[in-house]
Amino acid sequence: MTQRTAGNAGVVVMSGRRRACTFRQIAVTRALKGVIKAGIQVARVEIGENGTITLTLGKPESQVEVSELDNWIKQHADQVKGH
Question: Whole-prediction pTM value?
């Protein structure tokens, strides 16, 4: 990757080559279909820089943390309906 500065304007132009894709979408699709067909849930799919496909099995974990305010709104939502 090369880096050039355009004049005194402080503009940096980056150029370089894209790396070749080390995995194929069909490989991920086949792995997922096989696991799902076996009746197993997939929590997460990771693809490493070297093309390694890793399936984490089990129920997906919620990545959204619920705040106290969210819980309060959920508990009191019925009270404000119709007002």
Answer: 0.47
Q: Give the per-residue pLDDT at 39.
A: 93
Residue type, 34: G
Four-point Cα dihedral 64, 67, 69, 72, nearest 10: 90
Print the domain residue range for 43.
Answer: 2-80
User: What integer pLDDT is reported at residue 34 of this predicted model?
Assistant: 92
In the structure encoding, which two tokens stand for residue 80, read together?
């404000």
**Total domain count for the chain?**
1
Cβ-contact 23, 31 below 8 angstroms: no
**77-82 LR contacts (CB < 8 Å, sep 24+):** none
Q: How many CB atoms lie within 10 A of CB 4?
A: 9
**Please, are residues 57 and 44 in contact by the beta-carbon 8 Å criterion?**
no
Spans of the chain, pLDDT less than 70: 1-19, 62-65, 80-83
